[in-house]
Amino acid sequence: MREMLPFGPGVFAWGLVTGVAMVKSGLSIVESLGLSLLAYAGSAQLAALPLMAVFAPLWLVTLAAIIVNLRFVVYAALLRSHLGHLSANTRLWLGYFTGDVMFARYSALLAEEPDYPHRVAYFAGGATANWIIWQVSSIIGIFAAGAIPTSWGLELAGTLALLALLIPLCRHRPAQGGVAVAVIVAVIAHDLPLRLGLLAATLAGMTAAIALERRLRSPAT
Amino acid sequence: MDETLYIWSAILGVTAATFIARSSVLLLGERLQLPPTVESALRYAPACALAAIVANDLLFTAGALDLSLHNPRWLAGGVAIIIFAATRSTIGVIVGGMVAFWLLRAWFSG
Fold it and tell me: In a 3-state reduction of DSSP, which class is residue A5?
């Protein structure tokens, strides 16, 4: 758990912003608490808010949350060989508690010491710390939001938090191309009903990124 | 559909999404081997989805594309990107972006 402390302020700020953003997009305090305590997914919560605000179909809200969470599928694919000996139940909950920061710390540890004997305890401890910091800050944000005037435009902080998550994902050329295509399609398809433009933009961006990845790789092989 | 029911259904949907995305691969373990194309697609999906969401939030005013100086949100987003490039700080992006937003709004609204 001590390992998580340097990341505490970042997680805290994020939770705070998410808490404020939920209330500012029109959820009641109880609904915001429910979303935070159950879903425990900053990016997916923030991604779902604009969709919920316009009553987009439930399948689209869920799909958007899954897509934003897909990075965890990649994380989990890398973790599974280290945690595969655990019971299905334990794995279910370890997966649920995997945050971005937690995963980054854990892979750094395994790179240094692949056979670290207390790795499950390390993972569980870090994940618990992350969960507590996240929930406390979100709850503070939820209750503080009522005292903050809407004219401050604080819901923008939620968008900025997503932006802060997005930029590090764009380190490589294919991702940059995919993101550029996704933005262009999102603008063109903005008027599609049910916010389907988001889905179209995501699929177009993914296709572009994969095509670009192939092209960049082919001269070398 | 009733508003409260809709919101709680959506909350459960997002909760299910968390479990599906984070735990399914851990549960399936070594039995599941992803083809390389699928793995690439999964790697790029979050960035593309986030970009589309952020673009919708920053570039549009009242449902119309607005890249003028009277839309402080996309300018603040630009400032936030520069701040991240310089500092690598998440808090810097959020705080700096908000401050830029307030300043730009004050300048161009008058």
Answer: helix
The vertex-A119 CA angle with A115 and A125, nearest 5°, equals 165
A18-66 per-position pLDDT tens digit: 888 888 877 888 888 888 888 777 778 888 888 888 888 888 888 888 8
Residue A120 CB contacts under 8 Å (≥ 6 apart), including other chains: A83, A86
Taking CA atoms, what residue in A is nearest to B54? Answer: A159
Report yes or no on B38 lying in a domain. no
> Can you give the pLDDT at residue A152?
81
Of all residues in chain B, the one with the smallest CA distance to A98 is B22
Residues B64 and B12 in one domain: no
- Torsion sign over Cα B31, A204, A161, A165: positive
Interface contact flag, A68 B49, Cβ < 8 Å: yes
- Mark whether B4 and B56 lie in a shared domain: no
Count how many domains chain B has.
2
Mutation target to probe the B interface, by most B beta carbons within 10 A, among A101, A138, A160 is A160
> Is residue B39 situated within a structural domain?
no
Same domain for B48 and B86, yes or no, is yes
Q: How far apart are the first and last CA of chain B?
A: 42
Domain that holds residue B11: 1-33
Q: A121-140: per-residue pLDDT in tens? A: 777 777 788 888 888 888 88
Name the residue facing A62 among B14, B84, B102 (closest C-beta). B14
Are B86 and B54 found together in one domain? yes
Distant-in-sequence contacts of A144-153, Cβ < 8 A, 24+ apart: A144/A16, A144/A19, A144/A20, A145/A19, A145/A20, A145/A22, A145/A23, A145/A24, A146/A23, A146/A29, A148/A20, A148/A24, A150/A24, A152/B102, A153/B101, A153/B102, A153/B105
Query: Distance between alpha carbon A149 and the CA centroid of its chain, in Å?
Result: 27
**Where do the H-state alpha helices sit in B29-89?**
36-59, 72-87
- For residue B77, the model assigns a pLDDT of 95
Beta strand B64-65 with B60-61: parallel, antiparallel or unpaired?
Answer: antiparallel
The answer to whether B26 contacts A66, with C-beta atoms less than 8 Å apart, is: no
